[in-house]
Design brief:
Blueprint (H helix, E strand, L loop, with lengths): L6 E4 L12 E4 L3 H11 L20 H4 L1 H18 L3 H5 L13 E7 L7 H13 L3 E6 L13 E4 L2 H9 L3 E5 L10 E3 L5 E4 L10 E5 L5 E5 L3 H4 L10 E4 L4 H5 L4
Parallel strand pairs: 2-3, 3-4, 4-5, 5-6, 6-11, 8-11
Antiparallel strand pairs: 1-2, 7-8, 9-10
The chain binds iron/sulfur cluster (2 copies).
């Protein structure tokens, strides 16, 4: 009997936000992908898919937007490749060999939550990323149940208090900023005083670069255009928390996961 893969790899993403880097989809079909979101207890999973997110409120961009079409197309492509005996080369870790030379990171994931992956799959992804010299950039709502991803992925959290909780537990956190955040602020603090930075692509994409003042007057400039050049969310970046402004219900729904 064929063992179905726990994830599918796309070597060149068409996502303009991340840039053309490799990305991982959780699951091998729509149902296993959806189950990973359920397992994470993600508050953004739409009601129609068994989650708690009502229409009109914050909801998952990936399941509601083009991400879902991309998922269907990828699953179809995977089945086709499986029949032709090309599944590993096109959708397995071997597909990383087809990445662009400019790729600096692998996104885990474009849809589905990586907390659902087995220890074996997590280790395989981490080893493959290291072998390919790629940073891992990714997020999980299921951080409480994914210890192997601690220190690698960002914990997706719903409040600054939860960001502190995740950081206390050894994670870096990605948080939707409260509506009190002032447009133009590049940094913020959690209730426990941790300094966070706002995702540069949400501050000033037009300028292309954003400079942050960090501790002791230290400054750092990053590209504001794509994750593949920004890389703030990679595992070894110093600020423990990255913020994503909460402009509106629609914007909340498309916030980074
Ligand atoms: S944000 Fe991630 S975990 Fe949540 S529903 Fe979307 S894909 Fe699933
Ligand atoms: S902070 Fe950088 S790496 Fe993180 S989501 Fe924003 S652009 Fe991507």
């Amino acid at each position: 009997m064929t063992t179905m893969p726990e994830f599918l790899v796309t070597p060149i993403s068409s996502n303009s936000k991340t840039g053309p880097c490799p990305q991982v989809t959780i699951g091998h079909n729509v149902e296993t992908c959806r189950q990973s979101c359920l397992r994470a207890g993600c508050p953004l999973l739409p009601v129609k898919l068994g989650g708690p997110a009502e229409n009109g409120g914050p909801t998952c961009y990936s399941w509601n937007g083009t991400g879902r079409l991309g998922l269907l197309s990828k699953m179809k492509g995977y089945l086709h490749a499986e029949v032709k005996g090309q599944a590993e080369d096109r959708y397995g870790l071997s597909a990383l060999q087809h990445r662009l030379a400019s790729a600096k990171m692998i996104r885990i994931s474009d849809i589905g939550d990586p907390c659902a992956l087995s220890d074996t799959a997590v280790r395989a992804l981490r080893e493959a990323a290291a072998a390919a010299n790629l940073f891992i950039v990714g997020f999980t709502h299921g951080w409480r149940q994914a210890p192997l991803w601690r220190g690698i992925l960002m914990a997706s959290v719903g409040s600054l208090d939860e960001a502190d909780e995740a950081i206390d537990a050894g994670w870096r956190a990605a948080v939707v900023l409260p509506s009190t955040w002032s447009p133009g602020d590049k940094t913020f603090r959690t209730p426990k005083g941790r300094r966070g930075v706002v995702c540069p692509s949400m501050i000033d994409k037009a300028k292309g670069r954003v400079t942050y003042e960090l501790r002791r007057g230290k400054k750092v400039t990053v590209s504001a255009t794509q994750c593949n050049s920004c890389l703030i969310c990679r595992e070894d970046w110093k600020p423990a928390v990255v913020g994503f402004p909460d402009h509106s219900a629609a914007a909340r729904g498309s916030a980074w996961r």
